[in-house]
């Protein structure tokens, strides 16, 4: 009775839990690391000089490619472990995902092309700015669409092409622009010096205010999206356990503001990361264990045990190595970017 | 032809992947080429190799960037446009694709940054290590993606439960019957693509300069041309043998595809080697056929009276479109033999000592610059169109793999992709052409090792962009 069958059932319960944790980590990694380089792109247009733009771009040029790989891991991981969720979510999010991909194409090539161009340089400055801005906006809309849920029949998406487009998803799209802008600004505070750093501080304060307002608006709206979410947050004893999340968030935002005023270099960025993680935790609490809200759970959509195990073995071995050499790559490019980047001649260009 | 979501998704997939495949086909070989150059620089200390590295790494960076951005599109299209395919294969292919991401993409991305920007920060040896890791990453990436593709061609190691494929034996899934030779054939194809691109671009640089140009100006181009041609001369024959062995596998596991490749309608022994024909799918016969008797059977079965399957053995709705498969294959093989000819010719000219001065040869090599891309693309057409009407051979039809999405949404996205790709890749080609026009720096420009030690100072001279308006380093005079 407690033989293989039982064991198998145990795995069928635990593996999707482990995997949803891993994919949550991958998505969080993505949001943080690509968030700051998309944020640098969002600030890009407002920068006052060519030298500022050069320095901002150089602060992310050696690492942006690795940052974006977490996005592929998010999609790939979903396909690897919850392929039914992947098969339902992707068609449902067709329009915002395709638009996000196109925006990412433009900003991705801007890194290379900008330094190859003279007369056409303005094209790639714009490609970098608008690409970053729109990729962020559509990611935010994907998030909003995800939170508000999908119409499904069994394991098929049954809604329309533009179901994702609602006032709520527009709000989440804008919120993410503010949030990534804040990440980008605090990144610039950490990575640059002089006038540019002072400017980045000012931008960080503005984006912080906008982010806090947006987070509050989303938080107020979310419970009205479904009874399920409302019950989770406001029933006893949940409310006691969950109340710290908004309280800690408020404290972190306050501490961040003070740090920016006090002229700290590094901590504002990590406090922003903390702010993101808290918001993310709040969403996770609202939605768990649904992977296609409000109908399909992680267990409904999980791959076979064999499939999940095979992928898990690889992740267990390779993921620590991935973290190690990614950290090393960051370490190689540590410290502030030089004030004068001669003629845009970065490294190999 | 009806332009429903299925047809439009097929066009969109074919378009985006045909664009995408060009860049990995080039960068897989180029990464190894860079590692070889840097190895030679560390081994000999000859600054020529570092000059060449610094030149080709720029070409690599642009091509790799284009490959990355077009590749992200691919990883999401399985879901957006082919969700029923994802449902059917997810248990099997999901982990395989995920392995590609975690074992290859992160490796490439992390060390690419160090390779491009970090030489002064990490020193020679670590930099060489980074270059090797980028090259290794490209090969690992090809390993997994070709495993997945081969599984769709020759599925193995799985069972069907509730109408979906579930894995039974992972070893047989990954190392499915057509995988080893397909991987060898593809990687060799990528290496040869790079070899002919490098040889052709170098030949072009030599042709642009008069014979009395300073030797140093041309040294890099000569060395590149010579190295690339040695590689091609040795490996084109090996590639032909691998291709032939791969063909035996197709005969065994995908007889209908093979029949389409050969334009063979009836099962027959002593099949001719059809050099040309116009296959007619309605009349189930060939027109204007030119062939060499018995040789077709010999090539395929290694026996003159070997029996080759025919298209008529399966119902019409299980046959692939014949003429695209028939012609793509012949174009690929034709390019392969042209490559062989260039290799043999280069051997003869080396013996005569006129490899760098024979203008007819240099022109031919220049014309062959895109030959590898052509061979890869047409080989890929043969493999993928030949698999139709199946997306998973014998198990899932392409028609049953498409997402439940509106045709309007796919039309809009397809048009957008066409416009965006034309714009972005048009500019990419323009900048690549500019880079190549400028060519490698003359070797005298290298100022020795002390340059490496300066912190934060880029090792290249200040860059003035490629459009030739500003800066002190003018375009070389024509």
UniProtKB/TrEMBL annotation, chain A:
Recorded superkingdom: Bacteria
Main location: membrane
Keyword Cell membrane: yes
Family label: Belongs to the cytochrome ubiquinol oxidase subunit 2 family.
Name the UniProt record assigns to this protein: Cytochrome d ubiquinol oxidase subunit II
Subcellular location: Cell membrane
Keywords: Cell membrane, Membrane, Transmembrane, Transmembrane helix
Automatic annotation (TrEMBL), chain B:
Chief subcellular location: membrane
Compositionally biased region (Basic and acidic residues): 443-453
High-level lineage: Bacteria, Pseudomonadati, Pseudomonadota, Alphaproteobacteria, Hyphomicrobiales
Highest taxon listed in the record's lineage: Bacteria
Species per Swiss-Prot/TrEMBL record: Microvirga terrae
Region (Disordered): 443-478
Signal peptide feature range: none
Family: Belongs to the cytochrome ubiquinol oxidase subunit 1 family.
Protein's name in the database: Cytochrome ubiquinol oxidase subunit I
